[in-house]
Amino acid sequence: MSFHNVQTIIGKATVDRAYRDLLFSQPDAALKGFELSAEETASLKALSREKFDAVAGELEEQILAGAVGGTGLKLTENEQLLPAVRQFDLTRFGMYANTN
To answer: What are φ and ψ of residue 79, in 5° steps?
Structure first.
């Protein structure tokens, strides 16, 4: 269930800029209530805002293209993720790690 939570967090941060701001400014508050392993929590906290924003922008474009074409799904209370978000490659976490 933990991997699903990581997907939900990434998806939400991608489509909800206020949540994204919270994730990067107050990660403990943003991750509260999610069952995550220590490694997943550390990976999410190590994300680089700049690199995440770049990828999120690409995903937003895919999401909007899907919505315009009628194939996009909305993020709902039951946490259905958009196709582009579901395909986000979580193995690229290291690529987004803060190097500063």
So the answer is: 60, 35
Domain ranges of the chain: 2-96
Task: Please state the pTM of the whole predicted model.
Answer: 0.63
SS3 45: helix
d(CA 8, CA 60): 15
Q: Which residues fall within 8 angstroms of residue 46, CB to CB, at 6 or more apart? A: 93, 96, 97, 98
Residue pair 16/61 in contact by the 8 Å Cβ criterion = no
- The 10s digit of each residue's pLDDT in 17-31 is 899 999 999 999 999
- 3-state DSSP assignment of residue 97: strand
CA distance 59 to 15: 9
Nearest-angstrom CA–CA distance, 96 and 38? 18
